[in-house]
Amino acid sequence: MIKIVRSRKYEVGLKNLLTKYEDIDSVSLAIRLFSKNPDDTRLRTHPLRRRLKGRFAFNVDDDIRIIFEWLGKHRVRFLAIGKHKDVYPKSRSR
Questions:
Q1: Taking a C-beta distance cutoff of 8 angstroms, is the pair 60, 81 a contact?
Q2: Interval 56-77: pLDDT, tens
Q3: Which fold has domain 3-87?
Q4: Residues of 8-30 as b/e, b for ≥16 C-beta within 10 angstroms?
Q5: What's the pLDDT at 94?
Q6: What is the spatial distance between Cα 4 and Cα 52, in angstroms, rounded to a whole number?
Q7: Phi, psi for 61 (deg, rounded to 5)
Q8: In whole angstroms, what is the distance from residue 63 CA to residue 6 CA?
Q9: Across 32-45, average pLDDT
Q10: What is the average per-residue pLDDT within 46-54?
């Protein structure tokens, strides 16, 4: 089982998400699935690139993501949660 540590930014994002959408069931289910098996295919866990290299994300639903980093073999820190457009930083113009 994976131990989860939550960052302050994650806590704020979760509070904001739940006040807007009030869908705690899908968030709870995704976290339970993740803590049992981070590679569960339903979560579509994937490594991030560019400015978020070294971090990972998984899907709560079609638009909501949880960004996390590994702290050890069985320990992660949740860094952010929210809609796709809100959790990924804006890329600079080329």
A1: yes
A2: 999 998 889 999 999 999 999 9
A3: YaeB-like fold (3.30.2310)
A4: eebeebbeebeeeeeeeeebeeb
A5: 46
A6: 19
A7: -150, -160
A8: 20
A9: 94
A10: 93
